[in-house]
Amino acid sequence: MTSPMIRMTGMVKRYGPVAAIDGVDFQLGEGEIHSLLGENGAGKSTLTKMLSGVATPTSGVIELDGRPVTFETPADAMRAGINMVYQENSLVPSMSVAQNLFMGDEKLFNRLRPLYIAAQQFLQSLNFNVDPWASVSTLGVAQRQMVEIARAVRKNARVIVFDEPTASLTPEDKHHFFHLIRRLKQDRVSIIFISHALEEALEISDRITILRDGKLVETGDAKDFDRARIIAGMVGRESGIEGETAPADAKPPGKRVLSVQNLSMGKAVRNTSFSLYSGQVTGIFGLIGSGRTETAKVISGVLKRNMFHGGEVWLEDKPVRYRVPRTAMRDGIVYVTEDRKAEGFFDDMSIAENIGMGFLAAGFNKSQVVRRSDIAEVAKYWTGKFNVAALSNEARVIELSGGNQQKVVIAKSLVQKPRVVFFDEPTRGVDVGAIAEIHRLIRELSRSGITVVVISSYLPEILSISDRILVCRKGRIVEEFAAGTAEEKTIMYAAVH
Length: 497
Known about the structure:
By secondary structure, the chain is of the alpha/beta class. The chain is built from 18 helices and 20 strands. The chain is about 35% helix and about 25% strand. Strand 9 and strand 10 (about 215-220) form a beta hairpin. The longest helix has 16 residues, at about 170-185.
C-alpha cells in the first residue's frame, strides 16, 4: 500500500497511569478491508474511538489523505467521512427505525410517509429484514445491529469502523453483511473490521493488524495469516484454546429439574414443551425470531406468559408462575441476558456494587442490611474466580472491555447460587481467551449438579458445549439432538424448515 488514506502514528491513550494504547501505528488504504484483532482490553476499540472522535489521544498524529487532522467530536469525524458502528448500539430507543436512519438529516418540514418508504427501500436493498415503522425499543439485539449498520452505510462514509458487527447476526444475515462489505469495497469505501470471530476476519480481510496489551504486535496481508498465528499473536503464546472448546463426551441426564408444558406468550412462544435435567448442559439453537430468548425470559419471570392457555412450568414437583425475576431467583432460576449493556449491569456502579446487587437480590440476608465489607468480600471472590481484568473492584463496569463486562454479568447472576441458569449468547463480543474461560465455567457448573441452558446462534459453540441440543423454530421446540451425533447441517435444517 503506497499511499494510505488514514495514517495513525505513535498513538497513545492514557487513563491515569494506565496506557490503553501505547505507541501504535496504523494505516488504512482506500477501498481496503482491514481487520483489527486482539483480546478484550487489547485496545482495538480505543484506537478506533480516537480515529472517530469519541476519544481524545494523549499523543500521536492522525493524517487523512496526507494532512494532519484533529477530531474533537464524532461529528467532526463524520464530516470528514469517518463513521463508527459500535458493538453496543447507539440508537434512540423511543424513535422508529426510519427516524433513527435519517436522524441528523431532517428537513425543516418532513412528510412521514415518504420517509418511511425511503427507509423501507433502503433496508431492502441491504437485505435487512427490519420494519421501518417499528420502535427501536421493540427490536431484538440483532435487528438493532442491522439498523446501526444501515445508518452508517446511508451516510456515504469514506471510512466505516465496524466493532463486532456480526456478534448478533444469524449465518444468513452474516452472508448478506459480507456481501454488503464487498460492495462497499468496490465503491472505494475503506473498512476497519473488529471481530473476535477469527474465521470471519480471515475470510473478509485484505490486511490484518493484531494488538496486545495496547501495543502493536504485527500487521500484514491477510493471506499470510491463519487462525493459529492470529491466536499466538493475540495471547503471546501458542494456545490450547481450540482443544479447550472441543466437544466433550455427552453426560447422561440427572434428575428432571424443570418441566415446561405448552408454554405460550403472544406470537413469540407457541405451545412449546421440553424438560431440563440436573448436571447437564442443554443447548438451544434457533434463528432470530424463533422465540428461544422469549422462552427463557418467560420461565425466569422476565416476561409474563399468557394469562389463559399460557401453559405450565414445573420446578421439580411444584407448579410455578413467575411474574417478576425476583421470585424466580428465590427459587433458584436465573437468566443471564444477551444484551449486557441494556439489561446486564448498572454502568455507573463499580464492579463490587454490581456483584453486590446480585447478592442483595438473592435475599440471603432477610434483614436486607448488608455491610459494605461483606459486598467487597463477595466481589473479591468472584472477580478472582473469573479473572476480571480491572485496576480494582471499584472501577466502573462501563470502563471494562466487553469480555470483562460479561464476566461481571455472569458473576452477578451466579452469586445468587442458582439451581437453573439460562445463559443467553454468553460469549457474544468476547475474545477467544474469555470464550474458553466461560466454557470452562459452564462445564464446571454442570459438573456441580446445576442445570445449565446455553442459548446461542453460533452453531460451533452449541456443538462444543452441549450435552443435548434443542432446536427452536417459530416459537416452539421442534427437534432434539444428542450432542455426540448432531451435525451443523441437520441442526440448521431443523431451524429453517
